[in-house]
Amino acid sequence: MTKLSIIIPAFNEAHKIQQDILAADRFLSSEDLSGEIIVIDDGSTDQTSAAAEETANNIQTPCIVERFEKNYGKGQAVRTGMLISQGIYTVFADSGVCVPFEQVKTGMDMIECGLCDIAHGSRKLPGCHISKPQSVYRRACSKLFHWFLIHDIKHLGNLTDTQCGFKLYRGDIARALYAQSTVNGFTFDIEIILMALSRGYTIKEFAVDWTCDPDSRLKPIHAATRVFVDLVHLKRRFNQFLKQG
After folding, report:
1. What string of DSSP letters covers 106-117?
2. pLDDT at residue 144, rounded to an integer
3. Cα angle at 123 between 120 and 124, to 5 degrees?
4. Residue of 36, 178, 10 lying closest to 94 (CA atoms)
5. Nearest to residue 89, comparing CAs of 53, 123, 69, 116?
6. Helix (H, G, I), strand (E, B), or coil: what is residue 154?
7. What CATH number should be reported for the domain holding residue 59?
8. How many helices (H) and strands (E) in the chain?
9. Are 119 and 205 in contact (CB under 8 A)?
10. Checking DSSP bridges between strand 89-93 and strand 166-170, what pairing results, if any?
11. CA of 12: how far to CAs of 31, 41, 89, 100, in Å?
12. Structural domains in the chain (count)
């Protein structure tokens, strides 16, 4: 039985997907965890899939590489990975090893002991170590996004970092949630959080060590319109839940 599924969404990551796969494989091997690595290439125009497949053929851990013909968005990539996963636990991690895979153990322990059903890495909690911070511009955009969310959707007020790309789930819960998710873009995290909370699942955060990847594909200003449209859609969809205070 597969204990842990590691999902890595990737878009034009040919120069670093190898290190992602190797780091995940080393972690699973060092912890003697039965696992699988799932790379979802979100319509890359470079050699991401080829690099991933070459690396997959030279590691011990089973590694699946799926490629979309066009770019749909991170939400679709993570959804696809979750739905083909087999793990008792699942985690998605952004490309670039921004958070060491060893910190998966913290989230798994939290879920295993019954503290929560979903464990989010957070870059905002005491105990975090940020070895390479975001630019001033990105930090400002992040704070503005967080303020807007909390001001508009108060149910998220207990979460400090909804957009950290390091989230763990009980596998059955992840597959149930993502099977009904619809958002393909940046705000897919918010959709999954609202779905989970509205169904009574518990989400807890844990502090992570984090290194900024300056090669991030997200362009905050370009994504702003799509984010706004998605948030309006989510507020309508979860209107009854959000009215509960």
Report:
1. HHHHHHHTTS-S
2. 54
3. 105
4. 10
5. 116
6. helix
7. 3.90.550.10
8. 9, 9
9. yes
10. antiparallel
11. 30, 8, 27, 21
12. 1
Average pLDDT per 10 consecutive residues for the chain, totaling 245 residues:
96 97 98 97 98 97 98 97 98 96 98 98 90 58 56 70 94 98 92 95 96 66 72 83 75
Structure tokens at 112: 């295993």
Q: pTM score, two decimals?
A: 0.89
Q: Which pLDDT score is estimated for 186?
A: 82
Residues 233 and 171: their CA atoms lie apart, in Å, by: 27
CA distance 40 to 48: 10
Q: Is 233 helix (H, G, I), strand (E, B) or coil?
A: helix
The b-or-e profile of 151-171 (16+ CB within 10 A means b, else e) is eebebbeebbbbbbbbbbbbb
Residue bearing tokens 């959709």:
191
The tokens for 245 are 């205070």
Handedness of CA 148, 152, 158, 162 (dihedral sign): negative
C-alpha span between 239 and 134 (Å, rounded): 34
Q: In angstroms, how far is CA 32 from the centroid of its own chain?
A: 23
Q: Which residue has the tokens 């997200």?
A: 218
The pair of structure tokens assigned to 84 is 């083909």
Tell me the residue range of the domain where 213 lies. 4-242
Place of tokens 């798994």: 108
